[in-house]
Specification:
Length: about 325
Amino acid sequence: MTVTAPKARLIDGKAVAADLRAEVAQGVEAFKKRHGIAPGLAVVLVGNDPASEVYVRNKGRQTREVGMNSVEDRLPAETTEAALLDKVAALNADPTIHGILVQLPLPGHIDERRVIEAITPEKDVDGFHPINVGRLSSGEKALVPCTPSGCIILAKSVATDLSGREAVIVGRSNIVGKPLAQLLLRENCTVTIAHSRTRDLPQVVRRADIVCAAVGRPEMVRGDWIMPGAIVIDVGINRVPAGEPGKTRLVGDVAFDEAVQVAGAITPVPGGVGPMTIACLLQNTLAAACAAHDDADRLRPAPGQAPRSGQPS
């Protein structure tokens, strides 16, 4: 008789994100009652990149659904860097705007670093400003990049206590890999960041209780790299041929059909990490609004938003 290996528990990012948005909506309603205004999120889009336009549209819809004020500034692709910096400065000075997000990528003639650094750190709901990066690294209260924050929430949806677990992150980007390492350290994990120069990468991944794949290579992490029972968080979103001419499909950085037979829990693609990004953006915006009104103690902090009172050795 053939015995089929048990499949991993699927971590439903859509459901977890919906719960988080509902919690944010309750917080927004309470904020309005206390202060008579709604938290405001401004999104600036330069140019007409199709993927960015879809993302900005989804952000605006979900922002309004939780009761926040949504502002969208759409600028032509030929907008100068100086004009964009002026727009950011105006939003920094606007007391009705609590969160600012400049949609990336920007046209090639604009220095993304200069634009990110121009955003007031207290309104930097993407968590990319060097001051927020430094605060996160030093254990202080910070606005945290949304995707890594979502990864922690998803992992804790299946294992409330991550303390003592070995975590391997495949990918060392400033947007996901590095901040995710800091958040996992805050959860008292033992963290390894692996990358393109890591020797014997499969063996490194095999020792992990938690695998976070954020490398941008379709199905790079194979099923036989996964420790039985591990938690697998797949950040990758890659479009590959679907087998029929002209057809494509979305896959992650993990070979899902293989890994699901081995892992204890795994995020699917799509429907895993992706929905969490906007939900965590809304959570950051509410946190920024509360901080601006000395209200932060009323809000349950997101990963990385609560300061640590000392780091254990």
